[in-house]
Amino acid sequence: xxxxxxxxxxxxxxxxxxxxxxxxxxxxxxxxxxxxxxxxxxxxxxxxxxxxxxxxxxxxxxxxxxxxxxxxxxxxxxxxxxxxxxxxxxxxxxxxxxxxxxxxxxxxxxxxxxxxxxxxxxxxxxxxxxxxxxxxxxxxxxxxxxxxxxxxxxxxxxxxxxxxxxxxxxxxxxxxxxxxxxxxxxxxxxxxxxxxxxxxxxxxxxxxxxxxxxxxxxxxxxxxxxxxxxxxxxxxxxxxxxxxxxxxxxxxxxxxxxxxxxxxxxxxxxxxxxxxxxxxxxxxxxxxxxxxxxxxxxxxxxxxxxxxxxxxxxxxxxxxxxxxxxxxxxxxxxxxxxxxxxxxxxxxxxxxxxxxxxxxxxxxxxxxxxxxxxxxxxxxxxxxxxxxxxxxxxxxxxxxxxxxxxxxxxxxxxxxxxxxxxxxxxxxxxxxxxxxxxxxxxxxxxxxxxxxxxxxxxxxxxxxxxxxxxxxxxxxxxxxxxxxxxxxxxxxxxxxxxxxxxxxxxxxxxxxxxxxxxxxxxxxxxxxxxxxxxxxxxxxxxxxxxxxxxxxxxxxxxxxxxxxxxx
Length: 567
Description:
The chain is mostly helical. It has helices at 7-11, 16-27, 82-93, 101-111, 114-127, 129-140, 147-156, 172-183, 187-203, 213-229, 234-249, 253-256, 259-269, 273-284, 309-325, 329-339, 344-356, 360-373, 378-391, 393-407, 410-419, 422-439, 441-450, 454-465, 472-476, 482-492, 497-514, 518-532, 537-550, 555-566, and strands at 31-37, 40-45, 53-59, 67-71.
């Protein structure tokens, strides 16, 4: 086993801010303990809370530098947290020799008298209910409880001083118990445990600050896997289809939060046509007679009025998916015909179905209606462009033009250019130019580059880079013009490299002074590397020395500058 990574490897597992804090944590003796058991390292690191955070690290496969690590802290940003990084640094750089406690335990067990071991386990089971239950499950196969007993025990973990946690309590003991039952060939007991976990998580959502769906989804997936493993009869399996359907179709606000996960579970559970047909039968009883109008904003509450609009659409969309999967084209066509102007997806799917059946005139009619009925219509336009390709070249080009303007996708631009004569194309380019001048400087620049108008592209980039740095959007994006210089340097800088270099230099100095932090300094270094590639070596060296002198009170910046010197 090797968890000894290089400092650079460890740095790559976290953000620069986390790395710096981890270094401080290690130097300030926040590490309480480090233990090793087999291939797993466990540790405790004192954080901001009274109780230390628990860290667990293990390698991913033999001989691999990759690791898997967890920490009980609430950190949820990029990379690993400072507690994990502090332990990795101690393993890598600290003067420690961790003895494998597994070997010690194995030696003790080999020498222990059976009666002493029995007495020890009895005493531990008396004070530790979790150990007692796992022991019973492992050796007796009789430790089963009712669904409501499991829920009660799980719910108790939300009570007391640990309410309003980030992720809620740790259900690992119940996961272990469920997996033990699966290994013993009792998947339905495991399914009961997983079902209890999913319901308890929903019922206690208000007890946690930041509820994550990953655990819920994994537990619901395990529930479905257990039902499959049970190899039930068709009638026995219907009970579980009904359960998932009731949860999926529930109008309870908490359960509705996970309607997507329950739907995925239904698709997984219904493994054949007969089971899908049973789901269809259940759903038909819930289908609305019509889709209600969308509600507006309530003047008193300021909230969106609930009319059932979205729920009705969602039920009908799922029904259509079932019909499609069951290949019931007649019923599917009826649904599409009734609702195609209420649902953009239905409009497109109906048009495609009609086209496949040879009724292109009606398909075009449906799609053209969709252009007027919906706001997001790129996929409908793409369908019309394909249909018009052999029927009407002018309409085909019109759809490609609108697709390009609407999506900014240059594939439509290239496709349209291949369909146009030179004079026609020149007129279109002029139209695009006028449109982009008002709306999108990047599209305008790329248009100039593609049309080989490098002077116009260069002037657009320089003008934009020198633009008003007080612009609200650019302030929000922390962009003072360097981003566009960087993006188009390879395309346009050669037109006038001296001016390009001068603009880089004029923007980079205030950008550097704007804020601090290693990530910011690393961005500055990237820009400096780009400037150096423009030539002007003497001017560049003078500029670098000026920056180092002016910001000599920033040791982190000077440290990052070493990467520029070594590049």
